[in-house]
């Protein structure tokens, strides 16, 4: 998709009625004594956490006092993604069983909410903020903009419509979300609006150099050696993906053990795979259990990897998607290769 912003209503972008419904939904959370629960997707990335914690600070500004933020799974945040307002994070087990307002962030499907999915039923009002074209349309009120580069673009626009002034901590969270999902303003959805939002965020005084170094340009020496080893085993198949080329790499639990690294260091590895000039499609398998793999896919435009991810039980965007694969690495690579061939 090129960096254009077609009119609302013609492309599945939110209409003015959708924005008004979202503003109304948030207002239910502003009633005295209202309990608000914010949830982002499992294994949160910068956009999931940053849009949630940025929005949370906006709600605080509006006077919300009973406010919880959480995500499914263990309550650990990789060090590169540490950001302001993390004190609002609570373990999922402590999440309000029936909040007045539930807001979800960056989750394309209910499955991304893990055991917290039941809050969609128990919450009085549920609001879904997202930017995945593959979003399944769950939630009572849904604000999904497939043309937005990040969920934080949607969250920031909603805060603007609620007349919330940006402050530095709020901006840092929203900026981390924006800079991670746009690959530092390099990906295709980096529109004028993205840069306008970035300008508003940077104007609050955030330290963009320090943020970028922490997130993108800093990793343990062991991770650098691990990357070298995994990339040394990468395979290029010029004839795959309809002749446009497939490159893939496999990072195993043994690799992590050998270099004494936590799994999150592998999140940056897809960038080394996707830069291979001879391949349209890049595939990275990250082992999470003996027969379970977190799979990342990237396309340069020839293939729609979101369709493959959805077919494999995951989701994402046309040029960046993922899923959880079961079986051996070879079986998963075979399945992806076949689906790529079927796309032509
Ligand atoms: P990444 O490869 O960086 O983990 O994810 C790329 C994109 O695919 C992100 O937009 C992410 O939300 C989506 N994605 C990655 N893994 C999964 C998954 O297991 N399920 C779903 N629904 N989406 C995923
Ligand atoms: Mn996102």
TrEMBL record:
<dbReference type="Pfam" id="PF01368">
    <property type="entry name" value="DHH"/>
</dbReference>
<dbReference type="Pfam" id="PF02272">
    <property type="entry name" value="DHHA1"/>
</dbReference>
<dbReference type="InterPro" id="IPR001667">
    <property type="entry name" value="DDH_dom"/>
</dbReference>
<protein>
    <recommendedName>
        <fullName>Phosphoesterase RecJ-like protein</fullName>
    </recommendedName>
</protein>
<dbReference type="InterPro" id="IPR038763">
    <property type="entry name" value="DHH_sf"/>
</dbReference>
<dbReference type="InterPro" id="IPR051319">
    <property type="entry name" value="Oligoribo/pAp-PDE_c-di-AMP_PDE"/>
</dbReference>
<feature type="domain" description="DHHA1">
    <location>
        <begin position="251"/>
        <end position="340"/>
    </location>
</feature>
<dbReference type="GO" id="GO:0003676">
    <property type="term" value="F:nucleic acid binding"/>
</dbReference>
<feature type="domain" description="DDH">
    <location>
        <begin position="35"/>
        <end position="177"/>
    </location>
</feature>
<dbReference type="InterPro" id="IPR003156">
    <property type="entry name" value="DHHA1_dom"/>
</dbReference>
């Amino acid at each position: 998709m090129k960096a254009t912003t077609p009119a609302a209503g013609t492309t599945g972008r939110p209409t003015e009625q959708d924005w008004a419904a979202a503003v109304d939904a948030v207002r239910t959370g502003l009633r005295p004594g209202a309990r608000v629960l914010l949830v982002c997707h499992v294994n949160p990335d910068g956009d999931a956490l940053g849009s949630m914690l940025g929005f949370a600070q906006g709600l605080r500004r509006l006077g919300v006092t009973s406010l919880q933020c959480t995500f499914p799974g263990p309550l650990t945040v990789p060090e590169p993604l540490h950001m302001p307002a993390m004190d609002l994070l609570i373990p999922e087990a402590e999440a309000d069983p029936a909040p007045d307002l539930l807001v979800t962030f960056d989750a394309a499907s209910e499955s991304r909410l893990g055991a917290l999915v039941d809050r969609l039923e128990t919450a009085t009002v549920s609001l879904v903020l997202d930017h995945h074209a593959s979003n399944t349309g769950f939630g009572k009120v849904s604000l999904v903009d497939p043309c937005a580069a990040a969920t934080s673009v949607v969250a920031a626009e909603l805060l603007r419509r609620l007349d919330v002034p940006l402050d530095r901590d709020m901006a840092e969270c929203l900026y981390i979300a924006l800079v991670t999902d746009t690959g530092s303003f390099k990906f295709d959805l980096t529109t004028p609006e993205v840069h306008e939002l970035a300008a508003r965020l940077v104007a609050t005084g955030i330290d963009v150099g320090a943020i970028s170094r922490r997130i993108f340009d800093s990793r343990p020496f062991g991770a650098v050696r691990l990357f070298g080893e995994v990339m040394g085993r990468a395979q290029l198949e010029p004839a795959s993906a309809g002749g446009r080329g497939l490159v893939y790499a496999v990072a195993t639990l043994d690799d992590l053990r050998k270099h004494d690294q936590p799994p999150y260091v592998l999140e940056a590895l897809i960038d080394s795979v996707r830069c291979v000039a001879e391949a349209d499609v890049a595939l990275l398998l990250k082992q999470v259990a003996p027969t379970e793999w977190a799979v990342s896919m990237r396309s340069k435009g020839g293939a729609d990897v979101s369709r493959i991810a959805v077919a494999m039980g995951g989701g994402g965007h046309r040029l960046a998607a993922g899923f959880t694969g079961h079986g051996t690495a070879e079986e998963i690579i075979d399945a992806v290769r076949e689906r790529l061939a079927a796309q032509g």
